[in-house]
Amino acid sequence: MVKLAYHGHSCVEIESGGHRIIIDPFINGNTHAKVKPSDIRVEAVLVTHGHGDHVGDAAEIAAANDCAVVCNFEISNWLGAKGVKTHPMHIGGSHGFDWGRVKLTPALHGSSLPDGSYGGNPAGFLVFMGGKCVYHAGDTGITSDMQLYGRLNPIDIALLPIGDNFTMDLNDAVEAAVLLGAKQAMPIHFDTFPIIAANPQEFIRKVEARGIRGRICMPGETLEV
Ligand code: NI
Ligand code: MN
Question: How many CA atoms are closer than 13 Å to the CA of 139, on its beta-carbon side?
Answer without folding.
Answer: 24
